[in-house]
Design goal:
Elements lengths: L1 H7 L19 H23 L5 H29 L2 H6 L3 H17 L3 H21 L4 E5 L7 E5 L1
Helix pairs in contact: 2-3, 2-6, 3-5, 5-6
Length: 158
């Protein structure tokens, strides 16, 4: 009897950062993903500029990693926007909603082609979001020199 009842209940998949909720949110993964997109874009630009005849397999792998990290970046941003940031945050930082939209657009554009401007735009947006995130946590955000081959800065907190 129970099996029949269970079959009548609609089912589907639910995806979430945490069911509990756990309260563990951090923009670090989004920043690392953005730096990875930049690095993969650099590698693809180098191949294009130098006219190197790299195996198609290498180009495919670089492109795959770039696309994978664009997806990670977008997933992390969606988690922050939908699970962490609350209405009061969007009121306190009125540009936050537009910042998410623009950053996600840059990420999508960077994924679709070899576009350093879009990749840098995604990183810049993620950094601004990270600064706002840390401010909502009551800590001071700071930009420090990254140790990545891409150069630039990463947003941390004091």
């Amino acid at each position: 009897m129970l099996k029949r009842i269970v079959k009548l209940i609609p089912s589907g998949f639910a995806y979430a950062h945490c069911d509990i909720p756990c309260g563990i949110y951090d923009p670090h993964a989004a920043q690392v993903a953005a730096f990875t997109v930049i690095r993969m874009t650099q590698l693809l630009e180098d191949l294009k500029r130098e006219g190197e005849t790299k195996a198609e397999h290498d180009v495919a792998r670089i492109t795959h990693v770039k696309e994978e990290h664009s997806n990670i970046l977008e997933d992390e941003l969606e988690t922050l926007r939908n699970d962490y940031f609350k209405e009061e945050h969007f009121k306190e930082f009125p540009n936050l909603s537009e910042l998410f939209v623009n950053t996600l657009k840059f990420s999508a554009k960077a994924r679709q082609g070899i576009d350093m401007e879009a990749a840098q735009g995604a990183l810049s947006g993620v950094q601004e979001i990270a600064e706002i995130f840390f401010k909502t946590k009551g800590v001071e955000p700071v930009r420090v020199k990254s140790v990545y081959p891409t150069g630039g800065e990463i947003v941390l907190y004091k």
